[in-house]
Amino acid sequence: MKNIISLIMLRIRPTLENKFIALASVIIFIGSIFANIWIVKIYKNQLYADAERRALLLCEATAISFTNTLLYQELNLIEEGGLLDNYIHDLIEDPKTSVVSVTVYDPEGKVLATSDYREFLKPNSANLSSVRPVAQMRLTYLEDGSKMEILYPLHISSKQFGILKMHFSLANEHARLALFKHWMLLMAMAFTIGGILIASIVARTLARPIKRLASEMRKVQEPTYEPQLECKRRDEIGELERGFVDMLTRLRAAAEEKERQQHALIQAEKLASIGTLVSGLAHEINNPLAGIRNCLRRIITRPEDSQQTQKYARLMDDALMRIEKIVRDLLNFSRKKELVLQSTDLNKIIQAAATLVDLRLKKQNLSLKLQLSSDLPAIQGDPQHLEQIFVNLLLNAVDATPEGGTITVKTEHQNGKVIAEVRDTGKGIPAEIRDKIFDPFFTTKPVGQGTGLGLSVTKAIVEKHKGNIEVLSNGPGAAFRLTFPVDMATPPYQCTCSAAILAGGKSRRMGQNKALLKLGDEVIIERIARILQTLSSDVMIISNHPQPYKFLQLPVYPDEIRGCGPLGGIYTALIHANNDN
Predict the structure, then answer these.
(1) Is the model more confident about 47 or about 107?
(2) If we measure between CA atoms, which residue out of 400, 538, 380, 545 comes closest to residue 464?
(3) Confidence check: pLDDT of 367 > 50
(4) Which 3 state secondary structure label does DSSP give 3?
């Protein structure tokens, strides 16, 4: 029974409506029980009072007749010829009287007449002890409650003639009481069921607007949600609905303002990071510019040498491509962009961030180790904002790591989470400031060297991606561990798919000047490579001239079967994909 009740309770939702119905049901049930008991008790008392009244009237009338008879016998006006027995017989036989037995005693306790002949077997002393105390009428109920006994003195003034004892049956009253209890039970059940139904209707009527309000509150998290509440009620629930709409309006305004301020902070920190990066990129741009200047001087010196001009033109083109890539990466990083979530490979984000801070690493003679998981599933993220996270963390690691140190970036997949960790070999973070490092404008750098927004902005971006960031620092070195949920819409890699670009091949069958598909232009190669990197975890280039493609940081393999055209390059790509993976 307990298991059944527990199962029912588990299946019943603890909603406000169900709680109200349950409470009302308990109150109605308990109220019905007490009302039933009270009404039955009143009815029982009324039944017994009516029975007592009828019995007393009959006993009083009988006592008068018996007293007169005893008086007439004492005066010898009538003979003792069984007149009392006749009276008793008539009383017992009358079905309207409910009389069970009648006994008449003299003042000494002797039985004068009775309907129960067992009374003659009792000694006079026993009878006397039971009736002598009666100086006036006495009514009692026998122990089993089925009979009522009345002792009535037979006297005229001070003259005592004896005692009348009458027993009345209460079977009729018990039957009527049982029937009344039955009907009261049925009425209580009907009242309880009706009360529960009414309570259910009232609960649903009261809970309907509350449910509607709760439903609207659940929809608040939807980006395109608009309140659907009409707010026509004038009671407390109407006030609650109007208050909810007003609160939602204020919250939206506050959220939009917070979003604008947070976006401004992110952009400010990004610009601060750009300032740090530019100091290193300036040197990287100056070198190709110096090379271009030298090439131009040589071309001006010997303009008639066409071979030299072509050679230096190619060198200048390579240098300009290098500058273009540096500027493009910097512009992409600094571009002001709203958060747009998409399926993103975190490994590629880390590699791009590492490229941006590469010059800072070289300048301080630091080594960067990328321990990236090969089967890392995708996450839902914004590539540009995620790149800013790792640029911030890597720049902080560069500032914290002494010359010759090592920075390690590690990714792994655990329990449906993608984990990335950036660890340095610096002095570590003191325990007393670990709780403050994510606060806005908190910095340990000298004045003028930090905004104090880097880690605060990083944490804000991580939380926008439904992730978590924590700092680990026990002794030397510090590590920042980032946790992101796996993109459930994108299944994790079951195998590694390779993609190859056949760069710069000409088909001799179509003539020396007619290319089947000329991909010698590095800009086109780069664009194709970036597109393929969004589709594959492994991209390679097949070319016999690897130097122009090194800036892509992709593996470049020579065509191992010369003279076969594109088929030779495809075969080479398949061989390397099989060997590497």
Answers:
(1) 47
(2) 380
(3) yes
(4) helix
Cα–Cα distance, 169 to 98 (Å, whole number): 5
- The pTM score is 0.42
Q: What average pLDDT does this structure show over 442-456?
A: 62
Beta strand residue intervals within 94-206, DSSP E: 99-105, 111-114, 138-141, 147-156, 159-169
Give per-residue pLDDT as tens, 227-257: 666 666 667 777 777 777 777 778 777 877 8
The set of long-range contacts for 345-348, using a CB threshold of 8 Å and a minimum separation of 24, is 345/376, 345/378, 345/537, 346/376, 346/378, 346/379, 346/381, 346/386, 346/411, 346/418, 346/420, 346/484, 347/372, 347/373, 347/376, 347/411, 347/537, 348/383, 348/533
Torsion angles phi and psi, residue 517, rounded to 5: -160, 100
With CA atoms as reference, report the closest residue to 388 among 479, 455, 469, 470. Answer: 455
Q: Can you tell me which residue has the tokens 């002001």?
A: 336
- Chain-centre distance for alpha carbon 76: 103
Rounded Cα distance between 272 and 283, Å, is 18
Q: Which pairs with CB-CB distance under 8 Å and at least 24 residues apart come from 336-340?
A: 336/267, 337/382, 337/384, 337/385, 338/263, 339/382, 339/385, 339/464, 340/382
Each residue's pLDDT tens digit, 394-431:
888 888 888 888 999 999 998 889 999 999 988 888 87
**CB-hemisphere CA count at 13 Å for 183?**
8
**Residue 499 near residue 540 (C-beta atoms within 8 A):** yes
CA within 13 Å, CB half, 59: 29
Q: In the chain, what are the domains?
A: 13-177 (3.30.450.20), 342-492 (3.30.565.10), 498-580 (3.90.550.10)
Contact of 50 with 134, CB cutoff 8 Å: no
Q: Rg for the chain (alpha carbons), in Å?
A: 53
CB-based contact 352:455 (threshold 8 Å): no
Within 10 Å of residue 300's Cβ, how many Cβ atoms? 8
Computed over every residue of the chain, the mean pLDDT equals: 75
Cβ neighbour number for residue 299 with a 10 Å cutoff = 16
